[in-house]
Amino acid sequence: MSVQTSEQRAELEHIFVTHRTRLCHAAMKILGNRERADDVVQDAYLKIIETDAALEVRRPMAYAFQVVRNLAIDRHRRNAFESSVFACEEEGEHVAAPTATPEVIAISRQDLELLVQAMAQLPERTRRAFEMYRIGGETQREIAAQLGVSTTLVNFMIRDALTHCRAALYGE
Q: What is the pLDDT of residues 106-134, one digit of tens each?
């Protein structure tokens, strides 16, 4: 098992720069949305470049396309799942809300309070990017444009906020 060299990493970076349009097109075939496809390609780039001990890549172009394809499929599945779980507001107007036990309500309130505290601890720009992405449903590209930063930085801010919130909730 050999480790990825700096030359291989540079070649992968070059592939993502020169073939970005083709990579986005491959992701768009799966996702059907240009902005989400751009996000997937950005995530794939970060995943490949940030990997410290990746195995040697014999066919870098095929590897880049496979990583993009896998991430696009994962994103598509997640979107499909979320769509099935989170129905439109209007569809749920006449559904009786399940009543929770006092214990469940107390635990939920404690979790919510932990999240509020965790979010308050984040830098303003990171918190705002996270809220725009997770609550507002905006793409990383849209967030980057609004905040005047790169999509890579937006990706890092979202990741950092999510990690911070998980740590607050689960003690990770």
A: 888 888 898 899 999 999 999 999 999 98
The pLDDT, as a whole number, for residue 132 is 92
pTM of the model: 0.48
DSSP letter string, the chain:
--BPPHHHHHHHHHHHHHTHHHHHHHHHHHHS-HHHHHHHHHHHHHHHHH-SSPBPPS-HHHHHHHHHHHHHHHHHHHHHHHHHHS--TGGGTTSPPPPPPHHHHHHHHHHHHHHHHHHHHS-HHHHHHHHHHHTS---HHHHHHHHTS-HHHHHHHHHHHHHHHHHHHH--
